[in-house]
Each structure stands twice: as C-alpha cells, then as structure tokens.
Amino acid sequence: MYQRIQKILNQGHQVSEQGRSPVYESGQWRVDLGRRELLARGVAVPIGARAFEIVEVLVRSANELVTKNDLMDRVWPGAMVGENTLQVHISAIRKAFGPDRAILKTASGRGYRLLGNWTPRQQEAASQPVASPPMSEPSAPPANSFPLTPGRLIGRAAAAQHVRDLASAYRVVTLTGPGGIGKTSLAIEAARGVVANFAGGGWFVELASLSNPDLVPTAAASALGLKLSGEISADAVARAVGATHLLLVLDNCEHVIDAVANLAERVLHLCPHTTVLATSREVLRIDGEAVYRVPPLDVPALEQATPEHILGHSAVELFIARMHALDVGFSPRAENLASIAAICRRLDGIPLAIEFAAASAATLGIESVAMGLRDRFSLLTRGQRTALARQRTLRATLDWSHELLPEVEQQLFRRLAVFQGGFTLDAAAAVITDTRLDAAMVTNGVANLVSKSLVALDTTRGATRWRLLETVRAYALGKLVEIGELDAVAQRHARYCLEFIQAAEADAETRPTDAGLSNCAARIDDIHAALDWCFAPGGSQALGVELTVAAVPVWMEMSLVLECRTRVQRALAVSPAGAGNAAQLRMKLLGALAGTLLGGVAEALDVNQVWATVFDVAEELGSIDYQLRALLGMCRDHYKESKLDEALILSEKFCAIAEHSTNPVDRLIGQRMMGYTLHFRGEQAKARQHIETMLNGYDDVAHGSYVMRYWFDRRVTALTRLAQILWLQGFPDQAASIVDRSLHDALAGGHGPSLCSMLAQGPCPIAIANGDLEKANDVVRLLLELSAKYELRGWSIWGHGFESLVMIRRGAVAEGCEKLRAQVERAPQADTPLPFTGFVAELALAHAKLGEYQRALGLIDATLARCARDRELWIYPELLRSKGEIILAHGGEAATATAEQLFVAALAYAEQQKVLSWSLRAATSLGHLRRSQGRTQDAREPLASIYARFSEGFATADLRAARRLLDALA
C-alpha cells in the first residue's frame, strides 16, 4: 500500500525515457514537475514540498475546481489533516505568487481553482532531473541530532502543529519572540513531528556559543557532518547539501543574524529539498520566509478566579508541573491558586520566567513569590543547571538581548520602560526624544525593537499601541536607573501625562464627546507611575499636585473613588496654602476630596465645612465653576440632615449664580436642585416641574465630562427622583417604568457611584413600595455588590437598610428589625443626599409588630418632631399614619379614637400635598379601623373616592389591599 501511494504521488515527477520532464507555463509562471520548482521569469520561487504538491494537483486541473477533500486526499494520503493545515499551505502558495496571487481562486466552502492558460509541454532536461523525494517508511525514521528536552512540552500542542504546517508549506520558517518564551523547545517539538518526511534527516545547529558570525557556515557544516576543504562558506555548505531532502534547525540566531540570513538564502536557492527552521529574537528578513511569533502561555483572567478557570490555563499548568518536579509533596489548593494565577499574569505567561518562579516558590513559598515579584530579578534566579549560561537567570536572558542592541536602541529600550501601560508612537516621541534621539529615530527604533521581540503590539485597547512585557519592562527600568536617566525621563513622562489630560479636557469643552476621558482612562497606568515618581524622593511634588488635580475626572469616570481620595489626600499634604495658582490648586483638591466622600462615610471629616471652604476660595478667585460645585455639595449635606430651609436657600443661590455661567448644564443642575429640595419639603407638583424641565433640556447639552464635573450622572438620579414623585402622586406603574429606564441607562454608562446613587433612590424603594419583593431583592443585591466593589460605604448602609425591609415584608420581622436598627444607628455616618427618615418609620412599625410599643412610639414621635422642625414634609402623612398603627396595635381606652384622629390627619396632609399614594394608605388604615367598629359606610366612602382617582398600579400591593377592603365593605 505504502509503495502504491508513493507511486501515485510521484506520477509525472520522473523524467521520461527520452530524458524529457513535464512543464506547465502561463505568462511569466512555470511549474517544472521534474525539478519540482515554481519559477517566475525563470527564477525559482521558494515553496515547501507539500505546498508544491498542491500546486501540482491544481496545475494538472487548471481552471477546474479541485475540492478541499480531493486536495487533502491526494497530498496527505491516509493522514488525518485539519482544514487549518490546508489553509496554511494555500496562504504559502498565494504568498509565492506575489502580485499574481489572484490566480489561485477560492470557491468558498468548496475548494480551489488555479486560473490561467497553463500550457503543458515536455522539456529536455538540461541536467540530471530531481525526483520527488521518497517518503520514509514509518518503521525506519530518519536520523536526527535534535537535543533531548526534559519532560512534556506544556501548552504548546496547537503551536507545534501550526509550526509543522508552516514547515511543510514554506522553505524557511522563523520562530521569533522575546527571551524565555520557549522558541527552542517549540522548534524541537515541531521538528520531531515532521522529520519523518525528510529522508536526509533533521540536523540541529546551536549558534548561541558563537561569537564570530563568520563561523556560522562552519557550525552548520559540522552539525551536518560535511567534510569540506578550504574556506567554509554559506555557498559551499549549500552546494554540499545539494538535493538532499533534509530539515535544518538553526537555533539562537539573533546575535549572528546577518550570517544566518545569508546561509538560509543560499540554502533556498541551491538546496531545493531542504527546509530551514530557525529560532531568533529577530526575523531573518529574506524572501520566502514565514514568521511565527511564539505567543506566551495562556494566563487566567483577573476577573475569573474559580479554581476550574485557573486550572484550565497552560501557564498555571506549567507552574504546577514544575512545582511537582521540585517538591513531590506539593498539591495545589484553592487558597493558593489565586496567587499562582497572579504570578503567571505578572510574568506575562513567559515559560522561562514561570519555571524560575516555580523554583523560587519551592523554596520560599508561593505567597512569598507572589508578593515579591516587584523585585522579580532577585527571585527569578534558579534556572536549571543544564541550561545555557544565558538562560540560567532571567536577568542573564535579557542581558543577552540587550547587549545585541546598537547603542541608540539600547537608549530607546530603557527609556520606553517609563511607560507602564503601553505607549503610542506620539507618546514615545514626546517623552523620549532629546538632542540625541529625535522623533524619526524613535519611530524607526520602536519598529526595530518590535522585530527583535523586545516590544510587542498591544491589541487590547483598540488604538494602535505598543508595550514592553512586564518582566522586560522591569529589566529595562533597572537599566534606566543604572544609567542615571530615570529622573529626567520620568519628569518628561509626568509632564506629558499632565498635558495630555489638559488637552483632552480643553477638547471636551469645545467638542462635547466622551472620547477625551476614555483616552485618558487608557493611560491610567501611566498616570499612576507618573504620580508615584512625583511624590517619591527626587521627584517633583509641584508637578505631582498639578497632575493629581488634572487626573481627578479620570479617576471618577473610572469609578476609582477610593484611589482618587488617597491620591488627593497625598497631594493636599504637600500643597502649600497661598494665593493665585496655589490657592486654585488647593481649592480643586479640597473639592475633589469632598466629592470622593459622596456616597461614602465621612468619618472624622466635616464634609460641609470642606465645601464651605471651597466656596469661599472660589468666590475670592471668581470661579463660578467651583462656587456651583461647592453649593451643590453643601446642599446634599443639608438633604442628609433634613435641613430643608437651608437647602432651599442654597438651591436658589445656585440658580442665581448659574445664570452667569457659560455652561448650559449649570442652569439645568439648578433646576434639579430645586426639584429635589421642593420634593423633600412636600411640594411635589412644583418639584415635578423643575425635574422635568431639567430632564427635557439635559440630553441636548450634557456629555461625559459634565457627568464627572458634578460627580454623578445627574440625569439618571433625576429620573429616579421623578419616579419617586410620580409614585407619591399615584402613578406607581409609571414610576416603575422610569426606574427601569434609569437602571438601563446607568448600567450602560457604567459609572459605579452613579449606579449606586440611582439604585438607592429609585429601583430599591419603588420595588418595595409596590410590593414587588422579587425585584426588590434583585436590585438590593446589586446595590450591595456595587457599593462594596467601589467601597461606597454610605450606599452600603442604604443597601442593608433595604435588605432589612425585604426581610420584614417576607415575615422575618425580628431579624429584619434588628438589622434595620443597626443601619439606622449607622445612618449619620453615610454621606448620601437622602434623609434616612423612611427607614426610621419602618423601624418603628417593626418594633410595634414585636410588641415593643414604647420604643416604637419614641422613635415615631422624635421623627415627627424633627420633620416638622426641619420642613421635611414629603413623608409627614406616612409618619402620622404609622403612629396611628402603632397606637392601635398597643391598644388601650383611647387607642381607637387617637388612631382615628391620626389617620384623618394623615389623609388631610396627603390631600393637601396631592400625594395620592399616601392618601390611599391613610384611607386604608382608616377603613380597617372603622370597619372594626361596624361603621361600614364611613369606612368605605373615603377609600372608594381615593381608589377611583387611580388610573394605574392596580397590581401593586397597596391597591390590591385597598381593593380587598372595598370588596369586604361592599
């Protein structure tokens, strides 16, 4: 069978008895089946053996469709070949055809046609023809000199198959990548898989020890066992190999790259059946070369931390395998898998670095290595004793690459280390250039460093950016310190970050888009690095203060509230008091500090006093912007304290100052402030007008930079306030619809503090008020998760408060009451723009259900007195009703009469405020009381009248309860 297959494959390859070989010609192209050559204008074009066999099948059926299955059966008879393998070979053929690549036509999903007028003819052989190399018998594999590799190659099965495909499609394949990525191991693995197809065997040429490029041909001749006399040149080696069908592996070529490229080029032209597989940190750059950039091993994503996810990645598999080899008792546990994943991420999945880290972990422990990777070169120094000298430590591996660079590229390489989060060419030119390194040199130098595998293209952030792998960057940064250039380059880098943010902010003022903040957010790692240098010994604190102020909107846009607060506090510690620019910077820092506490816990800081200081400085400096920010901040603080008279004064003052602002959003924010203030004061109709005016104009003028200017997305929080007003006015379905819309918008915006504020003001209370406990549970869970994620402890208190209400509604009164009492006690710490009054009323009712009447009455009476004093009247009707329910539950001689008086008063207050939902609750409580006295008509009339005024919400809990009572009273 084997001989019959070989005979079919070689059909037409042999020269006829008359010494003639079959040739096909079309235009400039010729396919010589006898010599197995593809020629353009008489010059042989390099192409792999399998790729040529595909050309042969296609040219014999020129212009006819050859199906994929037919191709695979005829070129790989009896073998299991994937479609990817065929595509690799087709790509190689198209590359060989160059500008005429269109003559190889794809019939989508079916097969291929070779187009053209291919004329077959017989040609006299000018010299001894070359027969198709015979396939080796499986039982007699060809000889090879590949070195043994310790253990199984982990995580490289797909890569090895791809390299094998390339080796049969191209004549020269170069594996490239940074030091330690595993080029040699992969090349050997792939070579072992294809050597059976080379009758002359596979020969390994180790070039790492060569110091003289002239010795490259000698090393190749020695590895091949060639006996050459005289001067040994690339030409002599290639002629000696001649028509032998062999695989030549050239390892570690980067330091003698020109000599290797010359040897490979001569082999291409003089050895028609030799395939070259090279490993190098720099590509050969010769015609016919296929380049495979060896990828790092797979590392677990940061956001997916389950053991199953972590264990499914090859970098982790390698680390664990090496730990097993070094420590027979090692067994990965769930608690150390996260640290192993972190180690693999920090080392960018580089196999050599992971092996060194595993060796260190076997001695020092996994946690120590995970924490110590900042000083990675002192840890990663325990390579195998049998490794080459340059691979025994990570530093030695990178030293090898660094020393091969020309001086100007060494300079560029170490300066690029200042970019922590990758860089664009513009950024590199702005930061790195000086009298010795201009912008053009930077561009060319980056291209050269990419080709030498020291810089990689970063495809994770959309725009074209480059980066140094983290381990490579750490090495280059060490060189930058060693040379003494760090401070000069870091200062230019910090100045660039500042100017970039300022330019984005200025652009946002003239062209309202969100792109500026997004572009700045993409550079957040660089902002971190720049600030770290500014406030470190030898840095520039003044520059750090300016950069901190500029970066505040970026942190807030990314919801990095705690980080923003920490950075601002550090800048404030060194920011001098004074006039002019110093006063302006300090004003902005104080405003940022107070802003980061919104939704948090104020702790010992008097937020209102900070805002008052900001306002005073802003007034002195004539800054309308910061006067308005400060007024909004103080007003929020008065909402929390239920000081509604003061809040109204501040809201009116905001509106008056906003009239002088050039920013159209400011007047709309004033409308929102008035709406909030009037809502809490119980004036719902006026409040609704202000909120709707704000919403109607906001979408036309606002964008992302305005959101950050006032710390939250004021539109989504205004929507939730409108929903609250609509619910009070008797439109529960509209309220639910609006909070759903606001939730959708807030989730799309992705701003964490805005999401928490919106959830606490809309979806949570509306779902509970409507009796939709399933939905309430979902949105409360979301609020708790987000407030924990963004460390907004104030909103966390609100989340636990709503969680307590859901528990009480579901019957867990004792547990819910205890939990709610804890949140009410914590409420003064929460820096949120909402009074906690509603929770106090609910807590009083819960105490009454548990029989704790005196505690319940004490709470409700204190709350009623405070609300009357501070003009917090939006909830006053419900507080009166709640007190009536508590007294009625307590019982006693005067309980019924007192409760009825409270229910009637609650109904009157609700009707006065035109809040139909409070009216319904008061009328329902009154109806139950009068029904218990047998006063059916008195019970029914007010409830029926109020119920009839509703046009929606009949499936909500309050309306269902009212309907049941009306039916009972009918």
List keywords for this structure.
single chain; elongated; 970 residues; 5-stranded parallel beta sheet; alpha/beta; 5-stranded antiparallel beta sheet; Arc Repressor Mutant, subunit A; Rossmann fold; 6 domains
Topology of this structure?
Elements: H1 2-9, E1 20-26, E2 29-32, E3 37-40, E4 43-45, H2 49-60, E5 66-67, H3 68-75, H4 83-97, E6 104-107, E7 111-114, E8 119-124, H5 157-169, E9 172-176, H6 183-194, E10 202-206, H7 216-224, H8 234-241, E11 246-251, H9 257-270, E12 274-280, E13 289-293, H10 307-311, H11 314-326, H12 334-346, H13 351-364, H14 366-372, H15 376-379, H16 394-403, H17 407-416, H18 425-432, H19 439-451, E14 456-458, E15 465-467, H20 470-483, H21 486-510, H22 515-521, H23 524-534, H24 541-557, H25 561-574, H26 580-596, H27 607-621, H28 624-640, H29 644-658, H30 664-680, H31 684-701, H32 704-709, H33 714-728, H34 732-749, H35 752-761, H36 763-769, H37 773-789, H38 793-809, H39 813-826, H40 837-849, H41 853-870, H42 876-890, H43 895-913, H44 916-932, H45 936-948, H46 957-969
Parallel strand pairs: 9-12, 9-13, 10-11, 11-12
Antiparallel strand pairs: 1-2, 1-8, 2-3, 3-4, 5-7, 6-7, 14-15
Describe the structure.
This protein has a 5-stranded antiparallel sheet with strand order 4-3-2-1-8, with helices on one face. It folds into 6 domains: 123 residues, Arc Repressor Mutant, subunit A, CATH 1.10.10.10; 137 residues, Rossmann fold (3-Layer(aba) Sandwich), CATH 3.40.50.300; 87 residues; 80 residues, Winged helix-like DNA-binding domain superfamily/Winged helix DNA-binding domain (Arc Repressor Mutant, subunit A), CATH 1.10.10.10; 229 residues, Serine Threonine Protein Phosphatase 5, Tetratricopeptide repeat, CATH 1.25.40.10; 79 residues. The radius of gyration is 39 Å and the shape is elongated. The chain is built from 46 helices and 15 strands. By secondary structure, it is of the alpha/beta class. The N terminus is likely disordered. Helix 13 packs across helix 14, helix 21 crosses helix 24 and helix 35 runs antiparallel to helix 37.
